[in-house]
Records
---
Amino acid sequence: MPRRKYQTAEEVRQARRAAHSRWERTNRDKVNAGRRQRYHGVSHEKTEASRRRATERLRGIIFRRYGEMCACCDTTERLTIDHIGAGGLRHRKEIGRTGGAGAFYRWLMFMYLPPGYQTLCMLCNQTKGQGERCYLDHSVGALSYKEQHRLHKNSKSREAYARQRQDVKDGN
Ligand SMILES: [Zn+2]
Ligand SMILES: [Zn+2]
């Protein structure tokens, strides 16, 4: 009589368990997807979509509170929330929210939309630095957001920007 590989039912169970955990180790993503499915009752794609929708809703509330256009140049593109006065980034670090806009929006919400913040477009926000306002020149108003952006990217400093802006005004 040939010797069977496993003698007892317990040995069979152990072998199966070992094989299963080997499979789990090499199929991490399937394991996690299954857990997510069981826990939330939805697939990964669905939770991602609903998270995005939630952030969109939050954005709507936040920008209705702080303004739906840039407080500096009136554009409605690429809006951000700016900490009025200096130290926006430092403030964000203090509250430990460096995890992107969503986390910051949730923090604002958690604080009941406190005063001291305003809507600025990305460009005005970036070029504001520690100063009172951005160094971009919005006076002519002939530049679109795209053109502003190109000019800003090519200059990188207040002085270089002013030179380039003058060239645009002069029509060079
Ligand atoms: Zn702006
Ligand atoms: Zn500006």
---
Amino acid sequence: MINEVYAAAADRYAAGSMPYRRCGRSGILLPAVSLGLWQNFGDTAPLERSREMVRYAFDHGVTHFDLANNYGPSYGSAEETFGRIMHSDMRPYRHEMFISTKAGYDMWPGPYGVGGSRKYLLTSLEESLRRMHLDYVDVFYSHRFDPDTPIGETLQALVDAVRSGKALYAGISNWPAAEAARAYAYLAARDVPCLLYQGRANMLDRDRMAGGELQGAADAGAGFIAFSPLAQGVLTDRYLHGIPADSRAAQRRTLPQERLSDELLGRVRRLADIAAERGQSMAQLAISWLLTDVRITSVIVGASSTAQLADNLRAASAPPLTPEDMRRVEDILA
Ligand SMILES: NC(=O)c1ccc[n+]([C@@H]2O[C@H](COP(=O)([O-])OP(=O)(O)OC[C@H]3O[C@@H](n4cnc5c(N)ncnc54)[C@H](OP(=O)(O)O)[C@@H]3O)[C@@H](O)[C@H]2O)c1
């Protein structure tokens, strides 16, 4: 049982433990490592564990918590869990926290619960605020580009979310590079510059780093925040000795077991050797590899235990990879 009365650690901003990186050309600094609540904070997860992780994160300098309307499972329940933790523990610290949510993928039945319409985005934001017991979020994202909605309708909904005070900043996630460029221009022209591009990036998924998304964000003065930095757990020691019963791959929802080929795990073992030489865990190497790119503002990790989170947070202040480390990693991934 964790302590009922929460007082944040006095040394949570102690020099060096959690570096803060500037988000594009904005005034915002984000922690090098942020916490995402996609999978392990829903109504099937123990509340006490979720609470412990949020508190541990904040105590160690994690100011940014990333959510979306449909995180769970079930949909909406990660925001509800977060709302309960806001209510029980975090309320006095709201102004020290940077909280995001999103809408774009399927959320509720019928034509208004998915996509990029103004109707969906703005009603979903209201619902997210209600579930999280918040008056505003710090970033409201369009979770994906919707080719069936006029781009201006989606983007104007972000502008109006900010103008209404229900979001402080606008962001886009998973938008193709060309549409992202149009989004940056649209939003800037309305004095609501895009704060963040959120995209999947990790050692095994480098399309957005090699393609236009990362550089496009940098050119537009937006930050880039990387999700699934551990490739959902593949880039850790989680699967090096089989598939644990409590793992994401065992649940067969978003991480297909077929992905875990001997060939891939062989590469992860070789990467883990580099990690060991650096005095890091495999997960830490995967995070350090991303943070070596100065265009990446922050890395959003997931975790199913406080021990995993603690392991990941230690990467925040680790030295970047050397050019020689980078070359060896490239050889393994080639
Ligand atoms: N914008 C989008 O479309 C989008 C999409 C996906 C994610 N995201 C955001 O990114 C966040 C992170 O995504 P993700 O959960 O896929 O990230 P991830 O960090 O790549 O994977 C997290 C999983 O890896 C395992 N893990 C984490 N740390 C570990 C460690 N130190 N040692 C061993 N295993 C470890 C855990 O798996 P087990 O559960 O098996 O223990 C954990 O659930 C999400 O919560 C969300 O906020 C955004």
---
Amino acid sequence: MEAAGEAAMPAAREVPVQITVNGVPRTAIVPARTLLVHFLREHLRLTGTHVGCDTTHCGACTVALDGVAVKSCTVLAAQADGHEVTTIEGLMPDQAGGLHPVQRAFQDEHALQCGYCTPGMVMAVRQLIEDHPAPTEEQVRRALAGNICRCTGYQNIVKAALRAARAAQAATDNDVSR
Ligand code: FES
Ligand code: FES
């Protein structure tokens, strides 16, 4: 019971959102303060997107919003209303099936240990290759500056990014020569 003179706490304001996630329209009513990363993980159970800091430092929460990599802990679910989100679960497999080419490159280069940073790294590398189809090592390191890995020392992650870019380039050349 409220003490005399004590104001009742206002209920958290809720907002409807409709977000297309990995090609599927999803609707929900969420507290207005809900972060996109929490919407993905807790409402949709897409737990491949990780939370490493909640303060925009680690990049573990990286997803694509309308095709552009963003840290989903810095975006409100309400801001993504009416937009398209791709998470690590939504990456398309390569021609061999199973893995997206960037994921395959991470596997081939042993670019992970605990794997906590990996979904964010993969999403960041996907963006890098879109921006720079033939990146230099320096461009790779700059592109991954917002993604922290606590295990690997980054060397194999950089190698994986370069390998993924080469594979994407080879696939494009193949398509053109057909
Ligand atoms: S959880 Fe978003 S940057 Fe760390
Ligand atoms: S592999 Fe463990 S944090 Fe990157």
